[in-house]
Design a protein that fits this description.
The chain has 478 residues and is α+β, with helices and mostly antiparallel strands. Helices cover 36% and strands 20% of the residues. The model has no long low-confidence stretch (mean pLDDT 95). Bound molecules: flavin-adenine dinucleotide and zinc ion.
Length: 478
């Protein structure tokens, strides 16, 4: 394959805009920007531009638009569907937002912060905490993913149950359009019914309609008290009832509800030194649950703990849970969450894995897990089904690990058919084949296959209005 001639004129012009540190071209420097987190996709590009301001982003996009050069916006590059990297034609400019990482304003009374797209999620959580506020978006990649990427994927994570997806946390947005103009929707209004709510078009668009450069995000009061408990729940059929009972008993204070299968826990203990099982009880399912109390009238902590203990007693007597470990210190809270956080990685370390990020109506979670497990186990004896995740939102990471003894390559040879069986079942159950990770390149075929024709037509029309020349992250989503 011959590589295309680099457009040195364009690269030079981008350098004029973004400064000498604002363009990367050396192979070793650009390589990490051209491959996705899981290394499923490795592409090539003209260069990586690293603008520092909205004006610089706009000027670079204008240059690219004039020449019909594709642009690929990139945040922390932690996306799981290959959306943030260029294809292998080598003609795209990757625009990394990493240097746009200022918090422009934090308004504690309006309970908002105005942030640039390249702010790392964890830094935003910290800034909110420093102002005695809570920024509730939280996910495994929070140490490196960026808010522009979170918004472009409408990220979910562990706080959705109480606070919603990334989309629900936004009041305003600033976007560089495909022709290089800046759309300023950067307001902090909680009420604004002046026509179509355009910001929502760009949220979840995975960079195919414009580049998000800044956003006004909502803040919340910091909980006065928090309790974390790890429970053994033998029957999957009891799990969603347990959530509903917990919501009622806590006065709707459940802020996280994560399912872990025994197999997952075993793989974490096997592959991560220093981890330990929180409970001696061996059972097929565990739930990691967090309660957060809003108001802090005096002994909020003691009151929350009493309420949780009495809830657990009741569930224990009803036979729904058979064991529970309540975190007694911040260190123990971290230890419990670590088990959940490293779960996906433990699967990777175990060998070949095929992942599905699906959702079904909350009422059908256990039915889906039972039917999906039976389906795949009968299709491939020995396959290790590994469903986990944010089941409180009906979101199941329905992952499967290779049978013991099979090679990774042989297992991955069955990727398509295992996807098909799983996604067919999801669609039959009125679910979604991509609950929180988006479409990117990985699931484009699935969208074309399962998407409603009218949905797809409207999406294509919106795309052609906002990006008539198709330069914004081409080959992704549609
Ligand atoms: P990138 O990967 O850089 O980009 C993602 C997409 O957004 C690409 O299409 C890119 O072109 C586009 N994009 C990026 N920035 C912009 C911008 N400023 N303007 C326009 N388009 C842009 N996701 C969840 O939803 N929930 C989870 O619980 C979760 N857990 C994860 C755990 C781990 C360990 C890992 C590795 C990933 C996880 N993810 C999860 C997936 C990923 O972290 C999220 O999709 C995240 O929101 C991506 O942010 P990013 O900055 O890395 O975006
Ligand atoms: Zn997730």
């Amino acid at each position: 394959m011959t590589s295309p001639q680099p457009d040195t004129d364009l690269i030079g012009k981008i350098r004029d805009i973004a400064g000498s540190g604002g363009v990367l071209t050396e192979a070793a420097d650009v390589a990490p920007f051209y491959r996705d987190h899981r290394e499923l996709f490795v592409g090539a590009g003209l260069c990586v531009a690293r603008p520092r301001t909205t004006e610089e982003v706009a000027a670079i996009v204008r240059l690219c638009a004039e020449r019909r050069v594709p642009v690929v916006p990139q945040g922390g590059n932690t996306g799981l569907v290959g959306g943030s990297v260029p294809d292998d034609t080598g003609n795209a400019v990757v625009i990394s937002l990493a240097r746009m990482n200022r918090i422009r304003e934090l308004d504690a009374v309006n309970a908002t912060m105005t942030v640039e797209a390249g702010c790392i999620l964890q830094d935003l959580q910290d800034a909110a905490r420093d102002a005695d506020r809570l920024f509730p978006l939280s996910l495994g990649a929070e140490g490196s993913c960026m808010i522009g990427g979170n918004l472009s994927t409408n990220a979910g994570g562990i706080g959705v149950l109480k606070y919603g997806n990334a989309r629900d946390l936004v009041l305003g947005l600033e976007v560089v359009l495909a022709d290089g103009r800046v759309w300023n929707g950067l307001n902090g209004l909680r009420k604004d019914n002046t026509g179509y709510d355009l910001k929502h078009l760009f949220i979840g668009a995975e960079g195919t309609l414009g580049i998000i450069t800044a956003a006004v995000m909502k803040l919340y009061p910091r909980p006065a008290a928090q309790e974390t408990v790890f429970m053994a729940v033998p029957r999957i059929e009891d799990v969603m009832g347990l959530l509903n009972d917990a919501r009622a008993a806590s006065g709707d204070c459940v802020t996280a509800f994560e399912l872990l299968p025994r197999l997952g826990l075993d793989l974490v203990l096997k592959h991560f030194e220093g981890t330990r099982a929180p409970l001696e009880t061996v059972t097929p399912w565990y739930v990691l649950m967090q309660w957060s109390a809003g108001a802090g009238a005096g002994d909020a902590e003691a009151a929350l703990r009493r309420a949780l203990e009495s809830f657990l007693e009741g569930r224990f007597e009803a036979g729904v849970i058979t064991d529970a470990a309540l975190a007694a210190s911040e260190a123990q809270v971290k230890e419990l969450w670590k088990l959940r956080e490293v779960l996906p990685e433990s699967q990777t370390r175990e060998g070949g894995s095929i992942k599905h990020d699906v959702s079904v109506p909350v009422s059908r979670v256990s039915e889906f897990i039972n039917r999906g497990t039976a389906l795949l186990e009968s299709h491939m004896p020995g396959i290790r089904v590994f469903p986990f995740g944010h089941v409180g939102d009906g979101n199941i990471h329905f992952n499967v690990t290779q049978p013991v003894g099979m090679t990774k390559a042989e297992f991955h040879g069955h990727w398509e058919e295992i996807n098909r069986l799983t996604h067919d079942l999801v669609m039959e159950m009125d679910g979604s084949f991509s609950a929180e990770h988006g479409i990117g390149r990985l699931k484009r075929g699935e969208l074309a296959r399962y998407g409603d024709p009218l949905d797809l037509e409207l999406m294509r029309r919106i795309k052609s209005v906002l990006d008539p020349d198709g330069i914004m992250n081409p080959g992704k989503v549609l």
